[in-house]
Hints:
183 residues; 10 helices; disordered N terminus; mainly alpha
Amino acid sequence: MEDVYKGWVMAGGIMRFRQGIRALFAWAQRVDLGLAERTLPPALFPLFLKMRRGERLHSLNVLRTLQEQGYDQPALLTAALLHDVGKSRAPFYLWERVIVVLARAFTPQRAKRWGQAQAPWGWRRPFVISAQHPAWGAEMVADAGADDLVVSLIESHQGYLTHPPEDHFECLLSALQAADELN
Length: 183
């Protein structure tokens, strides 16, 4: 059990803890709607407004991280702001996120299996939301008129590459994932 705990801490447990603290105090932080409105195409801004305050703050932090790193590709910046919009289909509470993070750390195969249920209800609800929000978000932005690159980035943002990025899409995806992990 000690090895699992060490692995969890090494794999980002401290970062996840910091993210949880930020989410817990999201109510006290200002959401820069102007930055989101200037960045997003007008048809997609209403999707940003559907997200919970914590997701908005997180997404703005992902956007700022990418901008600080010199990224200015519109599709990437749009995906940064909307990568978690699928969570607006079913509210994903902080305590549920904690359960998912712990389950992934200690029983990753079960957590993955639990996320494959069709509907977010019952005790599997948080696992379904966590696993399926990228597909839900991709569907939502596609329905709102986002271009294919935005849709693909959102849909793929939780599927980590097992090799160095080989093309433009994979470079953008890798940058989005790294910024997401930092925030």
